[in-house]
Amino acid sequence: MSVLLIEAFYGGSHKQLVDMLHENIEDSAVYTLPAKKWHWRARTSALYFMQNIPESPSYRVLLASSVLNLAELVALRPDLGRLRKVLYFHENQLIYPVRKAQERDFQYGYNQVLSCLVADSVLFNSTFNMESFLTSMSSFFKAIPDHRPKDLDCLIRSKCQVLHFPIRFPDVTRFLPEHKLRRRATGSHMSCATGVPQDISSHGHLSVPASSSSEASSTSEEGPVPSEQQGAVLTQEPQRVTADQRGPERQQPPSCPPQGSHTGPQPQPPLHIVWPHRCFSASTQKTSPRSAGCRSIAEFCFAREGVHPLDYRTVLLQALAGVALFRDATGPWEAVFREHDKDPELFFRTLLKLKERGLRFQVSVLGETFTDVPDIFTEARRDLGDHVLHWGFMPSKEAYLAVLCSADVVISTAKHEFFGVAMLEAVHCGCYPLCPKALVYPEIFPAEYLYSTPEQLGKRLQGFCKRPDVVRRHAVKVDTGLYSWEALRDRFRSVLSAEGHSVTEQAQARAGAEGSSARGSLSLEPTGVR
């Protein structure tokens, strides 16, 4: 067993990564802790693994997520310290969103910095994650009253590289409406009138290139899609709308008429907007018959085969089952909304303005919870009325994917995002993305899918509501395949290869004299086994 995989928080994307690596890398061994009580995992998991990972001369490489304090583990287990150590960041605690600066626990970010110093290679799921971690280090350590460490970012940067979270995208062909199937077949959005590709301006209007020789977009829609979606609502039956229930407004748009035809504009179904974001946290609540019932349902869902293995499901069901995920406390736990980083207020304000203007649209909000729901959700659902198509948890992964495939536009209003699985999954299902021009989004989505202000978001949606056919003919220029497991598999295998030089040495060679001199000022880098 040459590769040792350690996961202190075995759930959601953390579990997905470890499982994929274990399935695809020969001679690997896995040691994990359940995805519950996150704060205690970050504080004490090194002690558990010290006692439960047996010594073995066959280990050559160790991979762990940044939840584990790697510095503690290798200090407690010198035999593991001799391995080539790889650290993977799904998120970083230096800038992880908190409501108030005073709420940030210094220890978690400090542990991650220590882990980086003893690691040979540090991997991040996005450039935003990596750069925000490294550039925030100096300000983060200003919390120390005196004798602060210096230039730690220089010591660590040479070890760092971006290795995107690998996604296994499901085949959603059976869920795609006719116009999306046609679009996939052609690989471009063609003008019904001229037969040439069309572009969508920043205001959502249609523009036809002057030259008929313009090339169609050849970028495939297929691609990676990280996973972090929806929530659940168990206080009511999940809403499932079948084709028979949709009525004439939800039928597929007609095919383009033959060239030269003078038929009038064909009626279009209203624009379908989807907001599929994980948005749950946890909070202490008193035990009640309702909470006990929720926990029973959660236990049942855990046992069901085929439960969607994404963060939002993991977080929600664990919270229902009585798990303390995000803050320390005792007693039963239930889910509450963590609204401070997804900004549902902006999303709903924008939709209500569309309604005030009398524009036609439908919305699916895939995320709700059980207790302490912010007023904005209750008010928005009431005020949006008949515009609501789906609201809450879908009963299965297939039902969730079917909603994404039926939608036209997927929106993020996030104030914070390290990767954006939900958005990529929606793009995989053929949705047109609209994302903030900030955070991780600019490194994944071209500029035409980004907005800088709430006003820009509103204008784009107004244009799409007036001409939903424009969106339906548009082939999204995002190659999600770049984030698929198939595309990233060889890079992961290379990083975890027991032969050859460590990734650290390769990164150091690129780093140059600045990184070398910084490392020389503080000898903290371990010697790996070659």
Automatic annotation (TrEMBL):
Region (Disordered): 186-273, 506-530
Glycosyltransferase as UniProt keyword: yes
Comp. bias regions, Polar residues: 227-239
Recorded GO MF terms: tRNA-queuosine(34) beta-mannosyltransferase activity
Biased composition (Low complexity): 210-222
Keyword hit for Transferase: yes
SUPFAM superfamilies: UDP-Glycosyltransferase/glycogen phosphorylase
Domain Glycosyl transferase family: 341-445
Catalytic activity from the UniProt record: queuosine(34) in tRNA(Asp) + GDP-alpha-D-mannose = O-4''-alpha-D-mannosylqueuosine(34) in tRNA(Asp) + GDP + H(+)
Domain of life: Eukaryota
Occurrences of domain tRNA-queuosine alpha-mannosyltransferase N-terminal (ranges): 3-167
EC number(s) stated in the UniProt entry for this protein: 2.4.1.110
Pfam families referenced in this protein's UniProt entry, alphabetically: Glycos_transf_1, QTMAN_N
Keywords, alphabetical: Glycosyltransferase, Transferase
Family: Belongs to the glycosyltransferase group 1 family. Glycosyltransferase 4 subfamily.
Function: Glycosyltransferase that specifically catalyzes mannosylation of cytoplasmic tRNA(Asp) modified with queuosine at position 34 (queuosine(34)). Mannosylates the cyclopentene moiety of queuosine(34) in tRNA(Asp) to form mannosyl-queuosine(34). Mannosylation of queuosine(34) in tRNA(Asp) is required to slow-down elongation at cognate codons, GAC and GAU, thereby regulating protein translation.
UniProt-recorded name of the protein: tRNA-queuosine alpha-mannosyltransferase
Source organism of the structure: Alosa alosa
